[in-house]
Design goal:
single chain; mainly alpha; Sodium/glucose cotransporter; 21 helices; 78% helix; 0% strand; globular; disordered C terminus
C-alpha cells in the first residue's frame, strides 16, 4: 500500500492527540456522577450539536454510503430526507419532556407511565443493542483499515476499542462530547476534500463526472413502487422516519446530550444544528460514491478488476489522494468509529447506574459508589464490545447481522413511548401485551430475512411494523378495559 510516513504521522498525531485531550477531562468528570453523565449541564450548544452529528455518523456512514451509491444510486439519501420531520417532533415533544422530568435516563419516563417493568425492559434492550453496536462498529472500522494499512484486524479492534474506552472512562460525557466535536469537524473536512478532488480529478473536467453518472441513472432516488419487500423510495422514507424518531426521540445516546446543555432552548438548538448538519453531509457521502463510479469509469485502469463496491473508497483514499490528505481522511474514518463507540460506552454506563444500581440499592446515594459503578460499567461494556467485535469476525455479512440484531433488540420500545400519546391512561396489562406483540412482530420480520430467500416484508420495516403494532394493540386493549371499568363502576353505584 502506498501509505507515506507523513500519512502515518498525521494519523497517529490526530488519534493520539484526541485520546489525550479526552483524558484531560478526568479531573472534571470525577467530581460527581452528574459531572460524568451530564457534565452538570455546562456544555456549549454548538459542541453538543457537533457531538450529536458525530454520533450519528459512524464508520458505517463514512464508508457504507459511498459504497452503496457506487454500486447503486442515491436511494440511501432518502433516509436523510426524513430527519427534519423527526427532529420537529423531537424538539416539540421529547426534548421538553426529558428536561421536564430532569432525569439523565431516557427510560425514566416509561416508569412514570407504565411502572418499573417498562423502564427495565427498555434499558435491557438498549444495553444489548449497544454492546452489539460497539462490536459491529469496531469490526466494520477494522476491515478497511486492514486493507489500507495491512494491520491485523483483531489487533485493530482491540487497540481502537481500548483507546476509546480509556478516554471515555476517564473523561466522562464531557470528554465524549468535546472529542466528538473535534472528530466531527475532521470528518466533514475529509469528506469535502475527497469530493472536491474527485470532481476536479476527472480527465475531461467536472462535467464529465455528471455526464457519466446521468447515463447510468446514478442520481435516481430509487423506485417509487408500492412494494413492501423492496427498498423503494417509500420504504426507505418510512424506515428513516421511524428510525430517526427512535434516534432523536428515545435513544439514550442523544437524550443524554439533551441534559448536557444549560436549558431546553439550548438543547433544542444543539439538536437542530447537529441533526440537520447530517443531511448535507450525507449528500456529500452519496455524491462521493457516484463520483467514484464516474472517476473509475473514465479511468478503469486505476481500479483493480473485481474490487468490491465497499472497498472502492478505501482504494481511492490510499491511491488517489495527495500525501498527508490520505492520513487525514483515514483519521476521519477512525473518528467516525471512535465517536460512536465512546458514546455507546458512556451512555450504557449511565443506564446501568440510573436504571438499575440506584433503583435496587437500599443505601443512600453515595458519589463514591456511583463513580465506581460508572468506571466499572464503562470498562465491562468496552471489553464486552471488543470481544463481540472479535467474535463477529467469523460472521458473513457483518452489516446485515448488525441490522438484524438491532431490529430484534430494539424491541419496539418506540411504540411504548408513543402509546401514551394516543391512549391517555394505558393500563399495565394492555401495555405489557402490546410490548410482547410488538416484540414478536419484530422478531418475525427479522427471522424472515434469514430464513426466506424472498422475504415478503423488507427488514427495514421491522421498526415500523413493531411500533405500529404496539400502539394499536395498546390503544385497543386500553379502550376495551376502560369500557369494562366504567361498567363495573356503574354496577357498584
Amino acid at each position: 500500500m502506498e501509505i507515506s510516513i507523513l500519512d502515518y504521522i498525521v494519523f497517529f498525531i490526530f488519534v493520539g492527540g484526541t485520546a489525550l485531550f479526552g483524558c484531560s477531562f478526568y479531573f472534571k468528570s470525577r467530581k460527581s456522577s452528574a459531572a460524568f453523565t451530564s457534565a452538570e449541564g455546562s456544555l456549549p450548544s454548538w459542541v453538543v450539536g457537533m457531538s450529536i452529528f458525530a454520533t450519528f455518523v459512524s464508520s458505517i456512514s463514512f464508508l457504507g454510503l459511498p459504497g452503496d451509491a457506487f454500486k447503486g444510486n442515491w436511494s440511501p439519501f432518502v433516509f436523510s430526507l426524513s430527519i427534519p420531520f423527526a427532529i420537529f417532533l423531537a424538539a416539540k415533544i421529547f426534548i421538553p419532556l426529558y428536561r421536564g422530568v430532569n432525569s439523565v435516563s431516557a427510560y425514566h419516563y416509561l416508569e412514570t407511565k407504565f411502572g418499573y417493568w417498562a423502564r427495565c425492559y427498555a434499558s435491557v434492550c438498549y444495553l444489548l443493542t449497544q454492546v452489539c453496536r460497539i462490536g459491529s462498529i469496531l469490526l466494520l472500522l477494522a476491515l478497511p483499515i486492514n486493507k489500507m494499512f495491512g494491520w491485523d484486524i483483531q489487533t485493530i479492534i482491540i487497540v481502537t476499542g481500548a483507546v476509546t474506552m480509556i478516554y471515555t472512562l476517564l473523561g466522562g460525557i464531557a470528554a465524549v462530547v468535546w472529542t466528538d466535536a473535534i472528530q466531527g469537524i475532521v470528518l466533514i473536512v475529509g469528506a469535502v476534500v475527497c469530493a472536491v478532488i474527485l470532481t476536479f480529478g476527472m480527465p475531461e473536467g467536472p462535467a464529465q463526472l455528471f455526464e457519466i453518472a446521468a447515463e447510468h441513472n446514478k442520481f435516481s432516488l430509487g423506485s417509487f413502487g408500492a412494494s413492501l419487500s423492496e427498498s423503494t423510495f417509500w420504504v426507505l422514507l418510512l424506515y428513516g422516519l421511524f428510525t430517526n424518531l427512535n434516534n432523536y426521540g428515545i435513544d439514550q445516546n442523544y437524550v443524554q446530550r439533551y441534559m448536557t446543555t444549560k436549558s431546553t432552548k439550548e438543547a433544542v438548538k444543539s439538536t437542530m444544528f447537529g441533526s440537520l448538519l447530517y443531511v448535507p453531509i450525507s449528500l456529500i457521502f452519496v455524491y462521493i460514491g457516484t463520483a467514484l463510479f464516474s472517476y473509475y469509469s473514465a479511468q478503469p485502469e486505476l481500479l483493480p478488476a473485481g474490487t468490491p463496491a465497499d472497498q472502492v473508497f478505501p482504494h481511492f483514499i490510499v491511491h488517489g489522494l495527495p500525501t498527508g490528505i490520505t492520513g487525514l481522511v483515514i483519521a476521519a474514518i477512525f473518528s467516525a468509529g471512535m465517536s460512536t463507540v465512546a458514546t455507546s460506552i458512556n451512555s450504557s454506563a449511565t443506564i446501568v447506574l440510573t436504571d438499575f444500581v440506584k433503583h435496587f440499592s437500599k443505601k443512600e446515594d453515595s458519589n463514591k459508589r456511583d463513580m465506581k459503578t460508572l468506571y466499572l460499567t464503562s470498562l465491562i461494556v468496552g471489553v464486552v464490545g471488543i470481544v463481540i467485535g472479535i467474535l463477529m469476525m467469523q460472521v458473513d455479512g457483518v452489516l446485515d447481522a448488525w441490522w438484524a440484531l438491532a431490529s430484534i433488540f430494539s424491541g419496539g420500545v418506540l411504540g411504548l413511548f408513543l402509546l401514551p400519546l394516543i391512549a391517555r391512561k394505558p393500563n399495565r396489562a394492555a401495555s405489557i401485551t402490546a410490548a410482547v406483540a410488538g416484540m414478536l412482530v419484530v422478531i418475525w420480520i427479522a427471522l424472515m430475512q434469514v430464513t426466506s430467500p424472498e422475504p415478503a416484508i423488507n427488514g427495514k420495516l421491522a421498526i415500523v411494523f413493531g411500533t405500529t403494532v404496539i400502539m394499536l394493540v395498546g390503544f385497543l386493549l386500553t379502550l376495551l378495559f376502560g369500557k369494562k371499568c366504567k361498567c363495573c363502576c356503574k354496577k357498584e353505584e
